[in-house]
Every structure is written in structure tokens, then in C-alpha cells.
Specification:
By secondary structure, the protein is α/β, with parallel strands linked by helices. About 35% of the residues lie in helices and about 10% in strands. It has 14 helices and ten strands. Strand 1 (about 50-60), helix 4 and strand 2 (about 105-110) form a beta-alpha-beta unit. It is globular, with a radius of gyration of 19 Å. About 55% of the residues are buried.
Length: about 400
């Protein structure tokens, strides 16, 4: 296909596709899907080989967020039966992080629900970062605490944070339909503050909230212009008890086309499959590894994910390998630029976690997996909640049960 050949050539040159080309990827048919994945896979392998980076989430503070993000189980007015707890102590967070590192994660993502941190919160998170790094030599730490105030990014960087995550989520034109308690511009400003402080910026999107193809292309082009080091692609987890509980409009094929479009637009950036991969990609997850070079290991913030062992088996069975702690994630030109700016790209990568407002989307992943081994996901009935696919997290951080890592 002439379109795909042109996109591969542009991806290898880091050249931005046209909007028409990006929209054409989303409009391809299911019969053309494997050709689309193969083409985007060439770009992924050119910049990242066959490595898959593992990241691990630690939910420092769960629930009771004052923001009204429609996709979020922790939002103001949410009726989702999620875990709710206040700040973990630094040693508790460090113990949780150790489980992920032992499972193969090279980055720990510290997440807290809320509009943004107070200065006292930043002090608390700084102590947590120090505790994690004392116990886990070489681990990368990404913070995701919401909207930042002046100087807070610098303080997190000074405490040892490597990256900061804050997603754009959707297009600027439709942002007000999803959230009213802050603006799209607020999010852009926080990402820019992180970059200015020398933190590796992580910013992505949520698909599946009822947006159009044009909205998806708009937000991915905006991310390309913002130039984060990593782009998490979240697929909405429609939690029962949230305004978007009935938005079941994604198919595995649609998810693969979205990931392919992101890879073509952001060819040399770490693309991470974040919240919702188990729910919407399901048995097609291994194909998505040909497009993205990063995933989260185990559970998410408020919902359960695929078993950590199953993640590792999937990576190996698909012919990929887990990225080692000593390997540099980013291509040389991006790693060198990050090093010059004082960021973390020099020693590892630029991916990160998610903000507590995210449920299958937000600033990262929170959605999960509920059907067990041997069970088959059934098609969603029109307008029906899918309690068979979304399981609220009841283990790991904030509970007495061992984590899934």
C-alpha cells in the first residue's frame, strides 16, 4: 500500500506525516490491519529494536479527588467501589516499589489522586523517592501528582525524580466535554514545567471516550509538538459509577490502528500501552507489542491488570525481550538531548506512570482485567456496563494482600 510505504519512510526520517495520512491510518479496513501493523512495526523496530520496557505503578493516595474528569473512578461524585486511602508512608511505598522491580520493572511510577500537590505533598513524595532509590539501585522514578505549581518540578527533580507524567488526554476542542474543573492549557503548562526542570516529560492520551478520528489526530499532533519523551496510549476503562461507564466503542482492531497512528506520528518516542490493554486488546495484546515498546507490569491504580507472570510470558512468546536496567530506552539522539538538558534519558528512558484521576486513561493507566484464565470476553451489549471486564483492585498497595507483579 502506497500510504504505508510513505509512512514508513517518514518514520525512519522522523518526518511528521500529514493529517490526511494519519486519518487514513485510522480509516483502514480490518482486511488491511496486518499490513498497517507490519508497517508501523518496522518503524518501532528501527528505533527500539525488540525491547519492551516494564513500568510499575504505586498508588500513593487513592480516591476522593476533587476534579470531575468523566473517565475517572476517583473523580468527584464517582460511585465506583474503589479502594480509598490517604498517603502511603515512604517505607510503605518503597516496599510496594520493590515488588515491581523484582518483577522486572525498571521504572516505578508514583501516583496520587488530586488536582495537584501542596508543598507539603511534594516534601512527602520527595522522601518517598529517596527511600525507593536507597533500596533499589538504578531504578527510575516518575512522579504523577497532577497540576504543578511554580518550583515544584524543580524540587521533585532535586529529590531524584527522573520523569513527570501529565496527559493531554483528548483534543483541545473537546477537552471541556470531559473535564470542567481544569483546562487543556493547564495540562500543557504542567508538562512544560516538567521539561523546564530537566524532568523527562511523559504525556499521552485516552481513546474510547466517544471522540472522533479528528480528535485523536489532533491530540497526537499536539503531543508531537509538545515533544514528550514518552507517550502513553490509554484505552478507556468504563468503570461502573462514572459518567462514561457505557462508552464501550473500542475493538481490538481499532486499538491497533490507534497505536499504529501514534507510532507513525511519534516514531522515535517511547510509546506505552497503558490503561485498558487487557480490556480492549484482549487476545490481540501481543500484536500491540509490534507497535509500542513499553507496558505496565501487573495491576493499575484502581483496577486489576493481567497477571505479572502472564505479561512476561506474552513478551517472550511474541519474540520480544524485557529491557534491562542498564539499557538505554531512547534512541541516541533523544538520549543525548535529554542528557544535555539534565534529564534521565541518558541512563534509561522517558516513560512514566499515571495520575490518580486516570481510569483507563487519564494521566496513565488505571483500568484492568477481570475475566479469568479460560474465560472469553463477550461482546458488549449496547449501553451496558461491563462488570465482567473491569475488576476493581483489591490487592497490593493499600491492602494486606500481596501485589500482582
Amino acid at each position: 500500500m502506497e500510504l504505508l510505504n510513505a509512512l514508513v519512510e517518514k518514520g525512519l526520517r522522523r518526518e511528521l506525516p500529514t493529517r490526511e495520512e494519519a486519518l487514513a491510518v485510522l480509516a483502514t479496513s480490518d482486511e488491511e490491519l496486518l499490513d498497517v501493523v507490519a508497517a508501523a512495526g518496522k518503524v518501532r523496530r528501527a528505533w527500539f529494536g525488540r525491547r519492551v520496557k516494564l513500568n510499575y505503578l504505586v498508588n500513593l493516595k487513592s480516591g476522593l479527588c476533587p476534579e470531575d474528569c468523566s473517565y475517572c473512578s476517583q473523580r468527584l461524585g464517582s460511585e465506583a467501589g474503589i479502594l480509598k486511602y490517604t498517603w502511603l508512608k515512604p517505607d510503605e511505598a518503597a516496599a510496594a516499589a520493590a515488588a515491581g522491580v523484582a518483577g522486572g520493572a525498571k521504572r516505578v511510577c508514583l501516583v496520587a489522586s488530586g488536582r495537584g500537590p501542596t508543598d507539603r505533598d511534594v516534601d512527602r513524595v520527595s522522601r518517598t523517592i529517596e527511600a525507593i532509590k536507597e533500596q533499589n539501585e538504578g531504578v527510575e522514578v516518575c512522579a504523577c501528582l497532577g497540576l504543578l505549581s511554580d518550583g515544584q518540578a524543580d524540587r521533585l527533580r532535586g529529590a531524584g525524580a527522573d520523569a513527570y507524567n501529565h496527559n493531554l488526554n483528548t483534543s483541545e476542542a473537546t477537552y471541556g466535554d470531559i473535564t470542567t474543573t481544569h483546562t487543556y492549557a493547564d495540562r500543557v503548562e504542567t508538562v512544560q514545567q516538567a521539561q523546564a526542570a530537566g524532568l523527562s516529560a511523559c504525556s499521552g492520551l485516552i481513546a474510547g471516550m466517544g471522540e472522533s478520528d479528528e480528535d485523536l489526530v489532533d491530540v497526537v499532533f499536539a503531543l508531537r509538538e509538545l515533544d514528550p519523551d514518552s507517550v502513553p496510549v490509554n484505552f478507556l476503562i468504563p468503570f461502573e459509577g462514572t459518567p462514561l461507564a457505557k462508552e464501550w466503542n473500542l475493538t481490538p482492531q481499532r486499538c491497533l490502528r490507534i497505536l499504529s497512528m501514534v507510532r507513525f506520528v511519534c516514531p522515535d518516542v517511547e510509546v506505552r500501552i497503558a490503561g485498558g490493554r487487557e480490556v480492549h486488546l484482549r487476545t490481540m495484546q501481543p500484536l500491540a507489542l509490534h507497535l509500542a515498546n513499553s507496558i505496565f507490569l501487573g495491576d493499575y491504580l484502581t483496577s486489576e491488570g493481567q497477571a505479572g507472570r502472564a505479561d512476561l510470558d506474552m513478551i517472550a512468546d511474541a519474540g520480544f525481550e524485557v529491557e534491562g536496567a542498564g539499557e538505554v530506552t531512547l534512541p541516541v539522539h533523544r538520549a543525548d538531548a535529554a542528557a544535555a538538558a539534565g534529564g534521565c534519558g541518558a541512563h534509561a528512558s522517558a516513560d512514566c506512570g499515571s495520575h490518580g484521576e486516570a481510569e483507563g486513561g487519564g494521566c496513565g493507566p488505571c483500568g484492568g482485567h477481570a475475566h479469568g484464565a479460560g474465560e472469553t470476553a463477550q461482546p458488549a451489549a449496547a449501553g451496558a456496563a461491563r462488570t465482567d471486564l473491569v475488576a476493581v483492585r483489591r490487592r497490593g498497595t493499600g491492602t494486606d494482600l500481596p501485589p500482582n507483579a
